[in-house]
Write a structure and sequence with these properties.
single chain, mainly alpha, Na+/H+ antiporter like fold, about 75% helix
Length: about 400
């Protein structure tokens, strides 16, 4: 009797998952020994394990399994990051956060687009599309880095919050410019800002509502009957927040991030939990987030297209250099320096200039453009891969060193 195709597919997926967990565990140990963020080692190991080298892991970027891992994994990591955010810190830096997540993204996209226009010799609208794809920072990368490297609280939480809030803006800008590039419309800054406001507000409302409900059900003195099921509640609520926001055409990542903020600030909402219950939930969240990091970054490494990167390596590297060394510093200083309420120091702004890794979200946007056969999609995908590799391998590994040099490292 011949096995069914679905059974063979299930066995293949199970084998891939087992390999990823095995190499991920080994990679985590290596990362701890050499004292670098584990996402760096996961990415490198994924490149080795992928079809281009050893061929141990082969999950296509456009497969439903890969999309499931990316969506849920990024959502849970973002929820974990939100849970570490403190409302008192956000009150202090909210002006910078709003400006850098909106106007800052435009500044980064335009400067990067101009660089792509000159270095790659592509039409300006395609160059601008490239700039919008890689302009947003990546929460799936930044949250794990700041969980492992203890940076001054308000700096770390500002950068993590920016990575969550500018995700919506990055997606909106990308598809707005894509419409112009494909001859389906004209760019409208007013429409883009209106869409951003709507998506962000709905995401905040959905995440805040579900976050409060979850806190009520697991920590209320009388009605917290789901206290012992708190880990399961977080899984349900993360899925519910993302899907609910996505169904209402809002930012799913914004919703899960705000959900995490609500659950991480239960005391501020008037709820209390025992120390033992808090530790149990924290252990579950940390373990689940670790597994999600393994899957996301090992898979991201396996899907790096070396042939595509080589086609535009020189021009792409020049664009990424401008992106890192010109566009990001200009964005930070133009958006953070005028905020007299936050009173950012030069060292804090310098650190924020360097720490803005590119990862899962830009990679997913580039993949969508390739699937849609958008103008210049292959060039955009190539430069996006270069940006992911360079920023994660260089910026993530030097985060702790730079924080120490700038006296921003908090010793444990």
């Amino acid at each position: 009797m011949e096995p069914s195709a679905s059974l063979e597919l299930a066995k293949h997926a199970l084998l891939m998952f087992g390999i990823i967990l095995a190499v991920g565990t080994f990679s985590g140990l290596i990362a701890r020994l050499v004292r670098v963020p584990d996402v760096v080692v996961f990415l490198l190991v994924g490149m080795l394990a992928g079809p281009s080298v050893l061929g141990l892991v082969d999950i296509k970027a456009d497969s439903s399994i890969n999309q499931l891992i990316l969506i849920f994994g990024s959502s849970y990591i973002l929820f974990d990051g939100g849970a570490t955010i403190r409302l008192k810190v956000l009150k202090e830096v909210w002006i910078t956060l709003v400006v850098i997540s909106t106007l800052g993204l435009l500044i980064t996209a335009v400067i990067t687009g101009v660089a792509a226009y000159y270095f790659l010799g592509i039409p300006f609208i395609v160059a601008l599309l490239l700039g919008t794809v890689i302009a947003s920072t990546d929460p799936a990368t930044l949250v794990p880095v700041f969980k492992q490297v203890k940076i001054k609280e308000r700096v770390a939480q500002t950068v993590m919050s920016e990575s969550a809030f500018n995700d919506a803006m990055g997606a909106i800008l990308t598809f707005t410019v894509l419409g112009v590039a494909m001859g389906a419309g004209e760019f409208s800054a007013g429409d883009a800002l209106a869409d951003l406001f709507k998506e962000s507000l709905l995401g905040i409302l959905i995440g805040g509502t579900l976050g409060y409900m979850a806190a009520f059900l697991i920590a209320h003195e009388k009605f917290g009957f789901l206290a012992e099921y708190a880990p399961v509640v977080t899984l349900m609520a993360v899925i519910g927040a993302y899907m609910g926001a996505d169904g209402m055409h809002a930012s799913g990542f914004m919703a899960v991030f705000v959900f995490g903020i609500m659950l991480g600030n239960m005391e501020s909402l008037g709820f209390k939990r025992s120390e033992e219950e808090s530790h149990q939930l924290e252990d579950f969240v940390l373990t689940t987030a670790l597994i999600m990091r393994m899957f996301i970054f090992i898979l991201l490494g396996t899907q790096v297209d070396f042939g595509l990167m080589n086609q535009y390596l020189i021009g792409g590297t020049a664009v990424v250099a401008v992106f890192m060394l010109v566009a990001r510093p200009a964005t930070v200083f133009l958006c953070a320096l005028p905020d007299r309420r936050a009173k950012w120091s030069f060292k804090e702004m310098l650190f924020m200039c360097w720490t803005r890794e590119t990862g899962v979200i830009p990679g997913a946007l580039a993949g969508i453009l390739v699937g849609m056969k958008a103008p210049g999609a292959q060039i955009i995908a190539s430069v996006t891969f270069i940006a992911i590799l360079v920023t994660i391998l260089i910026q993530a590994t030097t985060t702790k060193w730079l924080a120490k040099k700038l006296d921003l490292l908090v010793e444990e």
